[in-house]
Amino acid sequence: MARAISSRTFLTCLALFSQCAQTQKYCNPPSPLNVTYKPNFAVCLATVEQMINTTFTDQARLGEWNRSGCFYGDPANGVLSLSGCYDLCGVTYEPWPWKDTFDRLSLWIIPATMLMAHLSFPPLHWSNYIFVILHAAGNPVDSLWSLLTRLKMHRRLRRTAESILPQDLQISEQVATVFAAYEEIGWQDVSEHFKKSYQAQRLDEREITIIRQASHELSVMRSVSMPSTLAAIATLIGTLVTAVIRTIKMVELENTRVNNETAHTIAVVSLLFISIPQVWLSARLGTFTTVSGAIFTIDATNARLREQSRKKRRKTPLFPPLQLAICPLQTPICRLPLSPCPLRPLVSQDCEKMSKNGRMPAIPKSMDEKYSNEEYSNVQFSRKWPKMASYMGMNSSWRPCKHLNADSCDPRPRQLLFISVCWVVFGACAPAVFLSATNHANKMPIGIGCRSLTWLGILGLWLFSFAFDYIFQLCIYRSSTLRDPANKLWLLWHCSLVKDGIITGGITTAVLLVQVGLYNSCWCRASFTFIVKLVPYTIYEWKTAQVLWTAIPSSGLTVIFELLLFVELRSRIPKDSFALVSWEHGSPLCKSGEQVQRELDLLTSASAAKGACRTL
Q1: Higher pLDDT, 1 or 287
Q2: Half-sphere exposure (CA, 13 Å, Cβ side) for 324?
């Protein structure tokens, strides 16, 4: 079987080589041609059609042109060889008319801008807006993986809170909101700490009210834009429909392969499909409207809870002090815990030993302890947080730590990575490549050309960008020159942004060059087959092109939305029943208006009852 496949492959390559050798004959026209250096394919097509209608009716002239090497096969078919295209049409490239170029650019730039505007932009310095866009466009695999990890982490925190407080799901939702706020700031998981404190001593009414107030304040300062996000996604899908209709209408009107760039514009729109899951996940997570509001809310909540703990003599506070994450760059290794010393205020001996061995970085000191440099004190943390927030947790699309729990062999991070890669490869790049590879002149089903190679190059850049970040993160993690994890994250963040900026600039330049007309040349029209076909579509080719222009991008959208449903739908099997599928919740921080109003009503009623008790 393998031998038969190799023989068939060898014969196919041999046939293609002989075809290329046949069509690479030097063009020697029997009569001089008035050809300019800059090509004009519309004039060239008119010349070919005139030759078919007049010159080729003479058998003698037909034989001369057949021996000239300017045509592929029978000259009456009007199929040019590459050398013939150079001699009949022109040598360089023909830029598209500026009006057509502007129409094509406006077709996808506006929806692309609308989609990018719906990414999660924390209220940081204006440069952070540029950084988020660069990372989303320069490394979509890591951006999607980070968003999925945060969404899964927030959902896991909700389920953990429900398991701790199964008797009251409303209180568990409010506890999960506080958990998610901790996780947002420095990837700190406090669910285990809360569970131990709660199991030692249950919550009283005053503590429930304090947690409910914190949940309400955190949710109010959370920005969610799901309706506008759906509108932006619908606009992109409408752009795809518009591009397909314009392509079909243009070809029906012109009935020629001369003006075929709008068909490749569909491929550019397909590349933009990668923004759909990014903005969807960003809307499901939301972002805080203030930089330090969540920090002040958590600090005030902990202060009120400590006061209440002293009254009821609770030994362990419900929530730990706010601090940076421990070992956020640690790479999971099977049979080793994620954090050998989780959430300890001081650096213990085992962590010091592992730090010296280079297996994990030194742990940051507790935020509520005042050391000589006061680097991690609460006051310094609140002051420095606006400068550190961009690379310490507020940007949901950038997360070096992809762990979901302490089990380093948990398969879910790898599953989320697989989903992210499928979105990029099969949802965006594959439709673009196949659209351009099937829009060519020869009889082969798929022919690689300049545009399809460009889209493959963009896919290669995206995969290289992810691999670079992953390898560079391992190098930074094992570096012994930087002891502070915050400094490691700062270096990783800025180096990644420089790389993302270069890659984004290269991708943007390549797409613009395609749209302007750099590929509108004989060489790119030949698609490496040395055959240039400018004559009108046949009925079969026209029907096939319509099907491909519609089906290929639709398949990319199908892949994207199927994976979104896989992420959003949750299956559960009740006892003695069939499996049920339900819509998964988003982040606990993103509450609906009804939930926020319900919390406010409960707080108001509790305050009124407390005031009545004081009056009595």
Answers
A1: 287
A2: 28
| Beta-strand runs (E) in 183-337 | 222-223, 287-288
Distance CA 291, CA 278 (A): 22
Supply the DSSP string of 27-60, one letter for each residue: P--SS-----SS--HHHHHHHHHHHHHTGGGSHH
pLDDT tens-digit map of 267-287: 888 999 999 999 999 999 989
Looking at this protein, which amino acid is placed at residue 236? L
* Closest listed residue to residue 152, CA positions, set 428, 425, 411: 411
Nearest to 324 by CA among 188, 487, 189: 188
Q: Which amino acid would we find at residue 337?
A: P
Alpha-carbon distance of 77 to 256, in angstroms, equals: 14
pLDDT value at 406 more than 70? no
Share of the chain above pLDDT 70, in %: 78
Rounded mean pLDDT, 237-241: 87
**pLDDT confidence of residue 369:** 38
Segment 513-566, tens digit of pLDDT: 888 888 888 888 887 777 888 887 777 878 888 888 889 999 999 999 999 999
Cβ proximity of 465 and 371 under 8 Å: no
DSSP secondary structure letter of residue 360: S
Rg (CA), the chain: 31
Give the Cα-Cα-Cα angle 82, 86, 89 (nearest 5 degrees).
115
3-state secondary structure 182-219: HHHCCCCCCHHHHHHHHHHCCCCHHHHHHHHHHHHHHH
pTM for the full predicted model = 0.83
Task: For residue 434, give both structure tokens.
Answer: 């196949």
Task: List the alpha helices (DSSP H) in 117-204.
Answer: 126-138, 140-164, 169-184, 191-200
- pLDDT at position 445: 61
With b for 16 or more beta-carbon neighbours within 10 A and e for fewer, the 221-259 pattern comes to: bbebbeeebeebbeebbebbeebbebbbebbeeeebbbb
- Residue for token digits 């988020």? 132
Q: How far is C-alpha 126 from the chain's CA centre?
A: 21
CA atoms of 290 and 268, how far apart (whole Å): 36
Look at the alpha carbons of 553, 559, 561, 564 in this order and tell me if their dihedral is positive or negative. Answer: negative
Query: Cα(151)–Cα(590) distance, rounded to whole angstroms?
Result: 11
Residues 226-244 have a mean pLDDT of 86
Report angle CA 61, 65, 66 to the nearest 5 degrees. 115
Distance CA 295, CA 119 (A): 23
What does the alpha-carbon distance between residue 507 and residue 369 come to, in Å, rounded to a whole number? 48
User: Side chain identity at 567, as an amino acid letter?
Assistant: V
Pairing of the two strands 531-533 and 79-81: antiparallel
Is pLDDT above 70 for 407? Answer: no
